[in-house]
Amino acid sequence: MNLLNKKERERYMDEFKIEAYGKINLALDVVGRRNDGYHDLNTIMQQIDLKDIITIKSREKGIKIECNIPEVPLNSSNLVYNAWDKMKEKSGLDRGAHIIIEKNIPVASGLAGGSTNAAAVLKGLNKLWRLNLSNEELMDIGVSIGADVPFCIVGGTALAKGIGEKLETLSSFSNKFILLANPGMPVSTTHVYEKLNIDGIKKKPNMDMLVQAVENDDLYFLAKNMENVLEEVTIKEFKEIKTIKEDMIKYGAIGSLMSGSGPTVFGIFDNEKDLIRCKNKLEKKVDKVIITKTI
């Protein structure tokens, strides 16, 4: 029995709340620079349960963006604005949206906070406007917004190539203990890629072996062999990232790596006791320390 009357049902369908999950890179290699200014990547992306909450409401015209974090832009520089604009273009509908972002993922942190918000808006507007677009169609729109958006649409565990749009789903690497440590400074992804000397990269991840470790659910091999070539740029500019990585290992992580272009560092743990101990130690010197897990 449907307990909602017609008016209440219509109101319910005109508002969607979507969980927008962050990600970490279990390995990241840059294999070339493209003519369009982007870089070709080879990376293992992993969804985590740290999430923003996106509420999307119908609006007759235009877009209104709200957020609980003051430093998040509320104009066209926010990726959710681009997502709304692209969906208008794709659908041919001139409809508005009121988007409320409850932000828990640190801003400009290498955890795909902006990208996952955009992905949530694409999925939400697809429902709100009853467009019935497939995930593949949403991913095609998403890649024009940001390289991480297609992954944020599908989630889970994936090997990503190209600029991030070529995704190969891997076996689930869920329920792994993860500690995030964000030292608080924003890092420009564009700047890091511009500074990277691709020909001078000293240590690259063995992606085939790391993918196999994921497929085999081999936590220890993966944790001890993770590499992110972007560390060569970001750590030179922010020495505290190297210190956080060393502290993670010192206090019980079986592996530690910077996610994306940084500055967030994550540690992988094989038990909750060491995870909590490390969190308590790092909280004394790092701006944000967050317990999460892979999903």
UniProtKB/TrEMBL annotation:
Q: What does this protein do?
A: Catalyzes the phosphorylation of the position 2 hydroxy group of 4-diphosphocytidyl-2C-methyl-D-erythritol.
Q: Which family does it belong to?
A: Belongs to the GHMP kinase family. IspE subfamily.
Pathway where it operates:
Isoprenoid biosynthesis; isopentenyl diphosphate biosynthesis via DXP pathway; isopentenyl diphosphate from 1-deoxy-D-xylulose 5-phosphate: step 3/6
The molecular function terms of the Gene Ontology recorded here are:
4-(cytidine 5'-diphospho)-2-C-methyl-D-erythritol kinase activity; ATP binding
Name the UniProt key words of this record, in alphabetical order.
ATP-binding, Isoprene biosynthesis, Kinase, Nucleotide-binding, Transferase
What does UniProt list as catalytic?
K23, D148
Q: Name one Pfam family in it.
A: GHMP_kinases_N
Q: Which InterPro entries match?
A: GHMP_kinase_C_dom, GHMP_kinase_C_sf, GHMP_kinase_N_dom, IspE, Ribosomal_Su5_D2-typ_SF, Ribsml_uS5_D2-typ_fold_subgr
Q: Which residues form the GHMP kinase C-terminal domain?
A: 213-286
Name of the molecule in the record: 4-diphosphocytidyl-2-C-methyl-D-erythritol kinase
Which superkingdom does the taxonomy of this entry point to?
A: Bacteria
State the gene name recorded for this protein.
Answer: ispE
The residues covered by the GHMP kinase N-terminal domain are 78-156
Q: Is Transferase tagged as a keyword?
A: yes
Q: Which organism does this record belong to?
A: Anaerosalibacter massiliensis
